[in-house]
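Box S1 | Example of a co-folding query
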Amino acid sequence: MARRRIIAGNWKMNKTPSEAVELCKTLKDLVKNDAVDVVYCVPAIDIVPVAETIKGTNVELGAENFYIEDKGAFTGEISAPMLKDAGVKYIIIGHSERRDIFGENDILINAKVKKAFEAGLSPILCCGESLALRKAGTFKEWIKRQITWDLDGVTADQVKKLVIAYEPIWAIGTGETATADQAEEVCKLIRDLIAEMYDSATAEEVRIQYGGSMNAGNAAELLSKPNIDGGLIGGASLKEDFGKIVNA
Ligand code: PGA
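Box S1 (continued) | Returned holo structure for 2-phosphoglycolic acid
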């Protein structure tokens, strides 16, 4: 079964609501491609205006964060049902910036994956190793451990709808991309792990992205690899270049 490519922008903490609307308008014609899922994962405050602006286009809406309870006394948080109601389809979970800066651990990330599915959102589950682990040669064990913990109790049917983003931390925002072979090696390892944890049909369906300084120049080579089904793009998703990645 051919997996459908998914190119997602991770805007991070960039773009005010009015800037977000402008960016959507700038990218509108550049990201047209019916053969690819195109997603903008935007800051919470941009969700409503972006939802309005992308209506009738091929772009789908994603969010960058939520909390695991449905509602209540959790000052400053937003819930998965709130995102769903606002038109969000995809949700980034386990990004290295949430893990490292905001102290999110695999127990919380696992709870978020399950809550996202319960609310009808599709998680984009991120994993990836630090430069120290890459140099120490233990990064494969690290990735396997992250995925095993983060998917504890998640069913095969859910994993078939999951997107996993392999994002080596040393390549995020640094301009240093993993080579296409390095990226393919880990994406294949993740798919093999899913086959072990579930079965080969599930492994064939789960979509695996590469993320980390993907840009208009390197996207085509990365995306040509058999186990790389798309990209999670930070810096380059805020520019016209994003259209070139969608159409790479
Ligand atoms: P980058 O970010 O493309 O700016 O490296 C990717 C990410 O953090 O998702």
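The beta strands are 5-10, 36-42, 59-63, 90-93, 122-127, 163-166, 207-211, 230-233. The radius of gyration is 17 Å.
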